[in-house]
Amino acid sequence: MPKSRVKSSAPLYAFFPAENLTIGAGVAIFHIASERVVVCYHPREDYWFLPKGRRDANEETAVGAVREGYEESGYINRLLPLPLPHGQPSIRDKADPRYTPFFTEPVWTEMLVVTSKGQYILFWYVAETVPPAVEEVVTAQQKALRDELLEKDTKKLDGERKQAPLPPPFVLPELFPKNQTLKERTAMEPEGYQPVKHHGTGVDSDELTYESYLLPIEEARRKLGDSIPSDVVKRAWEGIQLRMKMEEATTSSQASGADSEV
Q1: Partners of 162 in the beta sheet?
Q2: E runs forming strands in 10-165
Q3: Spatial CB neighbours of 219, under 8 Å, sequence gap ≥ 6
Q4: How many CB atoms lie within 10 A of CB 81?
Q5: Tens digit of pLDDT for each residue in 41-87?
Q6: For 74, left (φ over 0), alpha (ψ -120 to 50), or beta?
Q7: Is 162 helix (H, G, I), strand (E, B) or coil?
Q8: d(Cα 93, Cα 81) in Å, to the nearest integer?
């Protein structure tokens, strides 16, 4: 498990009717090969942050995290399964084909006050920028969806067809392959590959002003300051490093077993 001690508030008991409860999701998006993480900057208000926001009605919270990551940073991303501790039931029998030591559960949760009656629950997830092949597929799907939306949204004005501007639509990428190691994953990128940053992905005038950068882990944490997002980055990166060590140990063990059979 990660070495750092995790700060935690005391458990509490509270209740809220649906109209007084807002559920949101945030995400730390890593480019593992270059050991960097996506951070956003708000130029008008001069602060750094990780992508986050309210999930849409009927939207799964984890999907909301991926969508917010894309809309606010411009990076297509997908959840990254990690061997971090959590409180959810899971399969422990390694003989069960459904068993996995890696999970995409939230790594942190915040309880924030919205109004005198409103409660905001924010779940933090971990994701990765997608490999080139997935980027290509998602981009093609986005183009097809955007063309379809534009066709529906086309209006006639003075006898001419005017198209209303639309941001690149969100498309959920395929999941991280269950049996793929992080080493195999990073090998899918050519040396020096830079993840694609899409522009104009914000859904309102404020989001369209956001800037996003892929920064080294420690630099990103300094930008985020003494905050929960900084802790999220630290905890997530420790989880990524732990997964790498676990996979390396498994590979070494398998290699040793094969050599003993020879």
Answers
A1: 155
A2: 21-31, 36-42, 47-49, 52-54, 77-79, 108-113, 119-129, 155-157, 160-162
A3: none
A4: 21
A5: 999 999 999 999 999 999 999 999 999 999 999 999 999 999 999 99
A6: left
A7: strand
A8: 18
DSSP assignments along 124-186, one per residue: EEEEEEPPHHHHHHHHHHHHHHHHHHHHHH-EEETTEEEPPP-PPPP-PPPPPPTT--HHHHH
User: Distance between the two ends of the chain, CA-based, in angstroms?
Assistant: 34
Rounded Cα gap, residues 168 and 149, in angstroms? 10
Whole-prediction pTM: 0.91
SS3 83: coil
Residue 173 token pair: 């990428």
Tokens of 178: 């269950």
* Rounded-to-integer distance, Cα 52 and Cα 84, Å: 21
pLDDT digits (tens, 9 = 90+) for 97-141: 999 999 999 999 999 998 888 999 999 999 999 999 999 999 999
Residue with tokens 């700060």, as numbered in its chain: 7
The pLDDT tens digits for 1-48 are 445 456 789 998 999 999 999 999 999 999 999 999 999 999 999 999
